[in-house]
């Protein structure tokens, strides 16, 4: 069966558009690109994973931190505290970390302040994360 040149071009164009759509969807899923309507108070993804898995052992660069969306930035800051057992007053953060298998709430804020000392890596990561949060006016 022989197709006209116009038909072949139309089929190729549709195939290219289809591939672009599939690649875009895959890229969005891979990079975790968030929509503008997400707010830090709506944590809705798998809470058993760390945003910054090594924030207690590796200093993250400003570039790495700047690539986090607002929600992940908020979680990343607070997961350093959560690792040490801080009990969160914020209901959204509390619910988020309660869903994490690794989270063991044990210290109120006052107890936390007097009993917990971050290591140098955690201290630097908190400073870098907070600076990014402040730059975004969050």
UniProtKB/TrEMBL annotation:
This is YARHG domain-containing protein. It comes from Senegalimassilia faecalis. Residues 48-133 form the YARHG domain. InterPro entries: YARHG_dom, YARHG_sf. SMART domains: YARHG. Gene3D superfamilies: 1.20.58.1690.
């Amino acid at each position: 069966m022989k197709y006209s040149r116009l038909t072949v071009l139309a089929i190729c164009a549709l195939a290219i558009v289809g591939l672009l759509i599939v690649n875009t969807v895959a890229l969005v899923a891979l990079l975790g690109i968030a929509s503008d309507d997400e707010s830090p108070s709506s944590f809705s993804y798998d809470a058993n994973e760390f945003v910054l898995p090594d924030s207690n052992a590796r200093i993250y660069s400003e570039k790495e931190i700047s690539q986090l969306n607002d929600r992940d930035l908020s979680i990343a800051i607070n997961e350093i505290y959560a690792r040490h057992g801080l009990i969160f007053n914020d209901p959204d953060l509390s619910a988020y970390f309660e869903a994490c298998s690794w989270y063991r709430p044990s210290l109120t804020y006052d107890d936390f302040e007097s009993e917990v000392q971050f290591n140098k890596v955690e201290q630097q990561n908190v400073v870098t994360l907070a600076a990014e949060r402040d730059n975004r006016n969050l």
